[in-house]
Amino acid sequence: MNKYTILKWEKLLLWLIPPILRKKTHVDWLNLLLTPIRTIYEETLYKMQHTGQVIYLEKVLNETFNPAKNYNPNFSTEQKRLNELIYIDESVKPTLQYVYLHKEYYEPNGTLMLPQLKIFKHEEYTNRNNKPVYLAHRKDYTTIAYANFRVFIPENLITSGVIVATPSGGESLQKTEAIKVATIEYQNLLNFYKLAGKSYESYSYSLDDLD
What we know:
Layout: H1 9-16, H2 24-48, H3 54-65, H4 77-82, E1 87-90, H5 139-142, E2 149-154, H6 155-159, E3 165-167, E4 179-181, H7 184-193, E5 200-205
Parallel strand pairs: 2-5
Antiparallel strand pairs: 1-2, 3-4
Helix pairs in contact: 1-2, 3-7
């Protein structure tokens, strides 16, 4: 925090009181009246100094729910996981793979090109080593809403009750599935600081996942 934004409230209050009224009772009473203004000033200043950028969003989440850990914006994703920090990563979206007609595998000079996709027969699908190509339907990209980013929460914050979360499917927490966070303060912080129109999903992780 910059020096010019830090106010020494006790000294400022003492300067503003006329010398003849500088009594302990008056100072304590005025200091009590000044407390709400001080709180509003500090909260507003904190919000103004933090934006929707990833490093600020991670910093706010860790300072609120994970204060025992020292957040360093220069840490890599692996270092953040090793230090059990709340961190943000990109969302996982399906990649497009196009299927071409057989005649499109010919070069202009008539040479046949080798297909890039390996196609299996119907009876070969039962072999788990064979991974048939999945043809996505238009509904896969119109009815499914993919989040813009993911928030990863250390599992110890969930087990300790600092952040209350439940699995999306109502079963036990799965490492690869999004969780529903019931902590209102967590949702309010993300909704306040994230960029407008951006969506997110929450996931839990533990150090055992690194093994």
